[in-house]
């Protein structure tokens, strides 16, 4: 598989030999298979082995993928949640080389120790975030999956907006959105759907509760479909009733301007923190600096919050074909707030600039 | 909080000083609060601090719980997914003692290293699975939550059985079960609902797909409600159509007998592996030894697969008030299979023996 070859080329150039990939999204990226608990052993000789606690199943396709091309698959006997079992199997299947690079940001101290004990002839070193680095820039197949995820998400949200909202609970609306995502072909929600109304609106991590939608409320929703493993995100805020209040219009316009500034900053070569600054500055200038979240966006792909982070301390520059969210928001405790989230793909100005995947309108709708 | 005092008593008796609890279910158990990314610092002096990336929210109740009793809550500024930020905050809030016990089975190598670097005056040691050990035996409040979770689960399954099943897809049935769990008051599903029909029936990790229920199928479902954080599990297998085939009756009766033997073995003082053997032996004797899973049951509580494991290699003995599943199954590749899962609480014979929480009938229903 081209992705595994590319990774191998990079890390053998850096002096690496065999590597063990354990982070689930990284295993899926490099094999196409999603198996809880599976790890991927990349041999320096090009022989790769998926060590799996069960026959792999991905999106309804059941494995084994064993002997597909250059990937061997070994189903581990025994309880792989026991690190000693996994480590011993690994040692048996493992490389004859002296150096094994592992994902130290994924392995727990206990698993790392069990691995070292079970394979004493191997010297463990760090693979770092090499696979996450490679996952930053998406290929056409990945972008196609993200576009479908966004289309499903827009459909689900659009249908909800046509229904009657007053009197329904946050929890009920969230369930309905998730059902509609599935109806339109999602594998599942990309993350737990967030619906907040009234004083709960605009809270980023709010868990939908029993509060009912009332006239005059802000209603904020955040949802996304997962399609072939790829996750997108949309966030919108509406007003319930015939007309928004002045403070609602003012707050909405402010967040909208901030979100637009963030979107417009999405160009190849722009520093991550510059994008964050573009979205953050209008909100800080309006006096909301104290209530802002640490970041105003993040990468999306096989995980919903992946690299890059769009935050004041983030280091690095955007590349073309990197999909990210832009999602500033302001929540006023006790009153409510506004969030507007989009998923976009970074594109050069010559290609028309950032590609907006989530196209539901960002006008302030009074529903 | 009594749970924190009990933990502190045990580990100070073992020579421990301060401790850092990072595993989410353990943090929730010891504080009552569920906050993604929060860690709990237990001071040797009885001063405990919840280091949280956001105001804690549990089951719709929004924090801060700060200054509730003996628990302080500090909301961390910055991006707590960055281990260096969390570690530095921790060092600032941390104890003046020399020894800090951490959960090495939860902390990644990178977080552990960042912690050591940010707090060089602390010597890190292992807390082991002390909190998991304490979580094994449930108190009355925990058992009450599990009983409600089981009641919700039985209701949801019962309603599904009254509806027409032929022609509906696995995916649609799974969604409907999850919706019914929520309708009856669940916080959410305890785990992804599993529905398998025909050749997919009896597969433990099957993801519901587009296969439709047909006459003559085995239909197996596995679901559970989460209520106040506590998770239960039920699994049942049905036959679709007027009458089961002979092979279906035979297989069902075999798995039923195995499951009953497992249930009847649930008494205080019985070794975990004896329970597993009771459920496993009838299936092995019938020639299915090769297709069995590593375990035939597990503990439930704040996590769906927690200690104890009921498997051939498990070490330890059951105590009263430990809730576990008993869930043997046989899947015949290409044909389908049978699973029967219950959640029960271990009780002494004098108190009537094991308390069955999931009471949906285990007769072989032809639907």
From TrEMBL, chains A, B:
Domain (Peptidase M24): residue spans on this chain: 145-347
Residue span(s) of domain Creatinase N-terminal: 3-137
Keyword Protease listed: yes
Domain of life: Bacteria
Pfam families found in the cross-reference section: Creatinase_N, Peptidase_M24
Keyword Protease attached: yes
SUPFAM superfamilies: Creatinase/aminopeptidase, Creatinase/prolidase N-terminal domain
Keyword list, A-Z: Aminopeptidase, Hydrolase, Protease
UniProt xrefs under PANTHER family: AMINOPEPTIDASE, CYTOPLASMIC PEPTIDASE PEPQ-RELATED
Listed name of the protein: Xaa-Pro aminopeptidase
């Amino acid at each position: 598989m081209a992705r595994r070859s590319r990774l191998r080329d990079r890390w053998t150039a850096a002096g690496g030999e065999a590597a063990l990939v354990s982070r689930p999204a990284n295993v899926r990226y490099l094999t196409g298979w999603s198996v809880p608990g599976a790890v991927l052993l990349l041999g320096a000789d090009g022989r790769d082995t998926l060590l799996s606690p069960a026959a792999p199943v991905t999106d309804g396709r059941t494995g084994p993928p064993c002997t597909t091309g250059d990937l061997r698959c070994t189903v581990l006997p025994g309880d792989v949640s026991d690190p000693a079992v996994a480590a011993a199997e690994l040692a048996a299947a493992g490389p004859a080389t002296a150096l094994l690079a592992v994902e130290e940001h994924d392995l727990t101290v206990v698993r790392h120790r069990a691995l070292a004990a079970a394979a004493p002839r191997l010297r463990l070193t760090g693979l770092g975030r090499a696979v996450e680095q490679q996952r930053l820039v998406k290929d056409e197949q990945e972008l196609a999956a993200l576009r479908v995820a966004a289309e499903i998400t827009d459909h689900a949200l659009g249908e909800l907006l046509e229904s009657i909202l007053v009197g329904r609970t946050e929890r009920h609306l969230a369930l309905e959105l998730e059902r509609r995502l599935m109806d339109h072909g999602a594998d599942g929600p990309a993350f737990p759907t967030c619906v907040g109304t009234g004083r709960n609106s605009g809270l980023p991590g709010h868990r939908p509760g029993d509060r009912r939608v009332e006239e005059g409320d802000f209603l904020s929703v955040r949802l996304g479909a997962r399609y072939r493993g790829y996750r997108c995100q949309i966030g919108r805020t509406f007003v319930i009733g015939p007309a928004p209040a002045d403070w609602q219009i003012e707050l909405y316009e402010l967040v909208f301007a901030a979100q637009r500034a963030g979107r417009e900053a999405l160009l190849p070569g722009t520093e991550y923190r510059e994008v964050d600054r573009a979205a953050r500055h209008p909100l800080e200038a309006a006096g909301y600096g104290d209530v802002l979240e640490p970041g105003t966006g993040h990468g999306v792909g096989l995980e919903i919050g992946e690299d890059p982070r769009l935050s004041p301390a983030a280091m690095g520059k955007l590349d073309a074909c990197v999909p990210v969210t832009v999602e500033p928001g302001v929540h006023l405790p006790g009153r409510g707030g506004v969030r507007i989230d989009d998923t976009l793909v970074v594109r050069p100005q010559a290609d028309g600039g950032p590609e907006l995947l989530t196209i539901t309108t960002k006008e302030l709708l009074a529903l």
